[in-house]
Amino acid sequence: MIFHIRATFATAHRILQQLSHDHRTLVLIFVVPCFLMWLLSWMFEDNQVMFRSIAPPLLAVFPMSIMFLITSIATLRERTTGTLERILTLPIAKSDFIFGYAIAFGFIAILQASLVATISLKFLGVEIEGPDSMLVLVALVDALLGVALGLLASAFARTEFQAVQFMPAILFPQFLLCGLIVPLSSMPDFLESIARFLPLTYAVEAMQNITVETTTSSETWQSILIVISWVIAALILGSLTLRRKSK
Predict the structure, then answer these.
(1) Taking Cα atoms as reference points, which of 109, 173, 118 lies closest to residue 143?
(2) Alpha carbons 128 and 237: distance in angstroms, whole number
(3) Average pLDDT in the 41-65 region?
(4) What's the CA gap between 73 and 162, in Å, rounded?
């Protein structure tokens, strides 16, 4: 796999310029997750104990879901409009394109995770025993996971509608099995084995640990590293499977 730093950052710069003029997408990225957390706090206004137990894990779910949707559609649009085919006639590798997208949306993910975590902690009453910075870190890693999986999914979709269809196929099973709805220990052994293979399980586990731990344990760092491994693997697979145009 060939990787050119200059071409990669040129791609990232182009994507960020495009995003800066797409106000609807910016609202979806920054406003929607904050609104969802506010709505959740309103729902549990009379049950703050429940809210504080489920809010941190959902900070692993909301950024990931939104970044998956935005990234997969944006990448697919590059291919369906012929932009990707024209770009790849230049001295640029597929890996440059994929990692350029990852850098651009990764920067957006940093801003998103910081904003949502700060609003949740300072204004919505979310409380954790661990450092606030760890909450931001895990939210960021989860957003990056959404970016990486979105890039990978876009390689297999032919239309924007198909890209959206990948969302329930890829994300919903992870949400059901991540341990947020039913503890892993209460699942049948087969489902628990599947859950232990999925990255969102470890993202939620890290968030749950941060909620109750005053210091970051080795188990929490292990969960974070597993999610990061998934991010790297998805980016590599995305660069290997990316097609120049949709048939």
Answers:
(1) 109
(2) 35
(3) 89
(4) 9
Q: Is residue 233 part of a domain?
A: yes
**Count of residues for the chain?**
247
Task: Check if the beta carbon of residue 154 is closer than 8 Å to that of residue 245.
Answer: no
Which tens digits make up the pLDDT trace of 228-243?
A: 999 999 988 888 877 6
What is the residue range of 78's domain? Answer: 5-241
Q: How many other C-beta atoms lie within 10 A of the C-beta of residue 200?
A: 29
pLDDT (0 to 100) of residue 190: 94
- The alpha carbon dihedral of 29, 157, 2, 89 has a sign of negative
d(CA 191, CA 131): 32
CB-side neighbour CA atoms (13 Å) of 221: 4
Is 247 part of a structural domain of the chain? no
User: CB-based contacts of 106: which residues, under 8 Å, 6+ apart?
Assistant: 144, 147
Quote the number of domains for the chain. 1
pLDDT one-digit tens code per residue, 23-42: 999 999 999 999 999 999 99
Residue 73 belongs to some domain of the structure:
yes
Domain assignment present for residue 188? The answer is yes
